Amino acid sequence: MINITDVAREAGVSIATVSRVVNNNDYPVRAATRAQVLEAVERLGFRPNDLARGLMQKRTRTVGLLVPDLANPYYPEIARGVEDAASAQLYALVFCNTDRRADKAEYYVNTLLQKRMDGIIIAGGGTDFTEASTAFAEYGAPVVFIGRHAEGVHSVQISNSAAARDATSHLTMLGHRAIAFLAGPLALTSVQDRVDGYRAGLEDAGLEFDERLLREGDFGERSGYESAQALLAQDPRPTAIFAANDLMAIGAIAAVHDAGLTVPGDVSVVGFDGIALASYVRPALTTVAIPTYELGAAAMRMLLELVERKQNPDLGPEPEGGRTTWLPTELVVRESSGLAPGAQRGDGERAS
Amino acid sequence: MINITDVAREAGVSIATVSRVVNNNDYPVRAATRAQVLEAVERLGFRPNDLARGLMQKRTRTVGLLVPDLANPYYPEIARGVEDAASAQLYALVFCNTDRRADKAEYYVNTLLQKRMDGIIIAGGGTDFTEASTAFAEYGAPVVFIGRHAEGVHSVQISNSAAARDATSHLTMLGHRAIAFLAGPLALTSVQDRVDGYRAGLEDAGLEFDERLLREGDFGERSGYESAQALLAQDPRPTAIFAANDLMAIGAIAAVHDAGLTVPGDVSVVGFDGIALASYVRPALTTVAIPTYELGAAAMRMLLELVERKQNPDLGPEPEGGRTTWLPTELVVRESSGLAPGAQRGDGERAS
DNA sequence: CTGAAAGCGCTTACAG
DNA sequence: CTGAAAGCGCTTACAG
Fold first, then answer.
1. At a CB cut-off of 8 Å and minimum separation 6, what does A294 contact?
2. Which tens digits make up the pLDDT trace of B72-92?
3. CA of A210 and C1' of C1: distance in angstroms?
4. A25 against A106, higher pLDDT
5. B155 has which bridge partners?
6. Closest residue of B to A86, CA-based?
7. CB contact (8 A) between residue B55 and residue A51
8. pLDDT score of A350
9. Would you state the pLDDT for residue B125?
10. How far is it, in rounded angstroms, from Cα A293 to Cα A299?
C-alpha cells in the first residue's frame, strides 16, 4: 500500500508538495516539480487514502441513501437519479436497503453517521426517521426526504392526493361506480394521501366511500394478487381496482385473469408509479407516472446545496424550517382501464 | 461533533480507556470504569469516527458492490443477498451502478480503492474488469465475481450453458422446430455460454442452428419487444422464442400479443433469471430460475472469508488461482410455453 | 514556489 | 487495570 511519503521520496520533494499537486487546486507549484510528482504518482500507482483525507478535511464527499425496498423497481429508479446527480458533483454514494425494518434502518443510520457521511437522503417510508433525522442534524449533516412529509424537514415530493384523485376520476368518468382501492401500508403518509385522493375522487362523482372496497397491502405483487382475489369474491364485485403502486396493480391483473375475467372488459385496473414494466405487461397498465428519476436527482441536488452551504458559510445559513420541491405526476392511460361493463361513453361525465 | 477526548474528559479517564470500552473487546477494564465511560458515551451521544478507526486499523469493514444495471430486477435481488451476508458479519456495503459503461466502472473502482474498501464484488458484465481486478489485487483487496468467468479469479456462478440447453430441450420436446434465441450483449461470457447451450439443445433434437433466429439484445424490455417483432415478421415465423433474460421475455410476450398472436398458442416464450414478476405476468412466464439472492450471499461469504484470511495470516494463504462456487438453476415451467402449433404431445420426444 | 510541523480522531504496543 | 505516547496518511496554516 503505497502512500504520500513514498511518492515524495520518489519525486524528491516534500509530502506537502505531493499533496498540492495531487489535489490539483490553484496553489502555485512550479511546472517542472509538478511533472516530477505526477510521474512518481503514475509510476508508483499512488491512490490517496480518502480516510486520512476525510479525517483532515472533516468531509467525505460521500452521501448516504436509504431506501425501503430494492425489489420494487420504483426505488432503483430513484437511486439512479440520486446517483447521477451525486457523481455529477463528484460525490460518492452509499446505498442502504432497510427492507422497511426499523432495526435495519437504525443500524444503517448508525453506520452512516460513523462513516461521517456529508448528508443523507431518505426515500420512502416504513419506519419512523425522526430520531435518525435528529441524529444527523446534531452532526451537522443535512437530511432530505423523498416522498414523505413532516414538520420542518427538507423534501422532494409529488402531490399524492391530487394524483390519486385524478386517477379515480378517470375511472368514474368511464362509468365505474364500484371502485376498489388497494392501498399500501397505511402507516405511510404517502399512502394516507393517496387514500384521501381516492375518496375525494369518489366524492367528486357523488359516490359514497365503502370501506369494504379499501384494502391495505404491502406494495408487493403477491399482496396485490391476494387483495384483488378477495375483492373479486365480494358481492357486488368492483368493476375497477385502483392500486397504490404498479407492482400491486400487476398482481391484481393476474388475479382478474385467474378468476376467468378480463381486463379491462370486466374489471379496469389502474396503477401508481409508472415503472418501466407497466408499458410492457399486457394489457398495458394505466398508471400515475411519477418522475422517479427526477425525484432522486432533485433530492440529491437539494442535499448537495445544503452540504455546500454548511462547508461554506459565506453562502448564508441554511433556510429555515425545511424546503419542499414539488414534482408533477401524469396519468398515463393505456389498455388496462376502460368503460365500466354496461356503461356508455359519457356515462360518468355529469359527475365531474 | 464530539470525539473521544470529550468522552474521556467527561468520564474522567484516558482516551485509551474509552477506546477499550467502546470497542468492547476482551481487554480487561474495571466494571466501575466501564460504567462511567458508557454513561459518558450515552450522555454525549458519542459516535466513534470510522475514518480515524479505519486509518489506524488498515481496514474499513466495508466492501464494494459493482452492478451493471439497477433497472433489471435481477441485480437488486443479488444486492439483497450480498447485503444480508455483509451485515450478518457487520460489514457495510457500498453499492455502485455502472450502467454498463466503462467510464463509470473505472470511476467507481477508483473511488472504492481510495476509500480503502476491504474487498469488492463485481456482478454481471458490460465492461472489462481485468484492470480493476489487478488494481485491487495490488492493494491487497480480494475480488469476487458473480456470473462471469476469467482465469484465476474467484467467482460464484451458474452453469449458463447447461441451463440454456435444458430450456431449449423443453421447447424441442414440445415439438418446436423453429426456436429463436434473444441473446443479451454477446460480449458477455454468460451470454456466450447461453448461446452455446441453446445450440447444444437444438443439436440434441437434430435441429440445425439458423443464424436468422439469433438476435442480440441489451437485456431491456424494449429490446425484447423489438427483437421479437422482427422475428415474428420473418418467414417462416418461429413458434418459440427463448430470451436470455426475463425482461426481454416479457417484452417478447407483449410483441406477440401486439401482433395479434397468442402465447403459448401461436408462440411459446421462455425467459431466464426467474425474477419475481415472472410469475405475475399473464401468461405466467416459463423461465430458468437462478438462485439470485443466494448468488449474492455466496459471493459475499466467499469475499469475507478472503478478507479475514488476509487480516489474519494464521488462517493460511489465499487459495491458489481462484475458486469457483457453482449454484444450481431450475427450469420453472409455467403458462408461456406449450405445444408447438400442430404438434402433439410426444412429438419431440424421440429427439431427446 | 517549497518544506517542516501540527493536527484530524482514533488504536495499540509499552510501561507501570 | 490504566495512561502516556507513537503513529495511521493525509491537509494546511506558517515560515522562508
1. A81, A327
2. 999 999 999 999 999 999 999
3. 79
4. A106
5. B145, B324
6. B96
7. yes
8. 46
9. 67
10. 10
Would the pTM of this model clear 0.90, i.e. be above it?
Answer: yes
| Coil, helix or strand at residue B273 | strand
State residue B119 phi and psi, 5-degree precision.
Answer: -175, 175
Decide if A243 contacts A272 (C-beta within 8 A).
yes
Q: Are strands B62-67 and B92-97 parallel, antiparallel or unpaired?
A: parallel
Q: How far apart are CA A147 and CA B281, in angstroms?
A: 28
Q: Of A162, A88, A85, A195, whose CA–CA distance to A327 is shortest? A: A162
To the nearest whole angstrom, how far is the Cα of B84 from the nearest Cα of chain A? 10
Per-residue confidence (pLDDT) for residue B319, from 0 to 100: 67
Query: How many CA atoms within 13 Å lie on the side-chain side of B211?
Result: 0
- The Cα B30–Cα A243 span in angstroms is 59
All three cell numbers of B22? 467502546
C-alpha span between A292 and B56 (Å, rounded): 41
Determine whether the interchain pair A250/B281 forms a contact, defined as Cβ–Cβ distance below 8 Å: yes
Strand, coil or helix: what is A117?
coil
- Residue A234: φ, ψ to 5°: -75, 160
What single letter denotes the amino acid at residue A201?
G
Residue A85: helix, strand or coil by DSSP?
A: helix
> A47–B280: do the CB atoms touch at under 8 Å?
no
Among residues B201, B171, B203, B165, the alpha carbon closest in space to that of B341 is found at B171
A102 forms beta bridges with none
CB neighbourhood size of A267 (10 A): 30
- Measure the CA–CA gap between A319 and A306, rounded to whole angstroms: 9
Q: What percent of chain A has pLDDT over 70?
A: 95
For the sheet with B286-289, list strands across it. Answer: B214-216, B179-183, B240-243, B268-273, B286-289, B330-332
User: What is the rounded (10 degree) CA torsion for B259, B261, B262, B267?
Assistant: -90
Cell numbers given for A55:
479525517
Residue B31: CB atoms within 10 A of its CB come to 7
Pairs across A and B, CB distance < 8 A:
136
Alpha carbon distances (Å) from A9 to A6, A38, B113, B300: 5, 13, 22, 38
pLDDT digits (tens, 9 = 90+) for B206-262: 999 999 999 999 999 999 999 999 999 999 899 999 999 999 999 999 999 999 999
- Which residue is associated with the grid cell 458559510? A313
Q: Torsions phi, psi of B190, nearest 5?
A: -65, -35
A142, with CB counted inside 10 A (0-12, 13-18, 19+), is: buried
| Contact flag, residue B214 CB and nucleic strand C, below 7 A | no
Which amino acid, A11?
A: A
Q: Over 70: is that where the pLDDT of A348 sits?
A: no
Distance CA A17, CA A28 (A): 10
Give CA torsion, residues A260, A263, A268, A269, to 10 deg: 100
Phi/psi at A243 (nearest 5 deg)?
-105, 145
Question: In the 8-state DSSP scheme, what is residue A208?
Answer: P
Nearest-angstrom CA–CA distance, B35 and B32: 5
**Cα distances (angstroms) measured from residue A260 to each of A232, A254, B110, B285:** 11, 10, 55, 18
CB count in 10 Å sphere of residue B130: 11
Give the other-Cβ count within 10 Å of A254's Cβ: 25
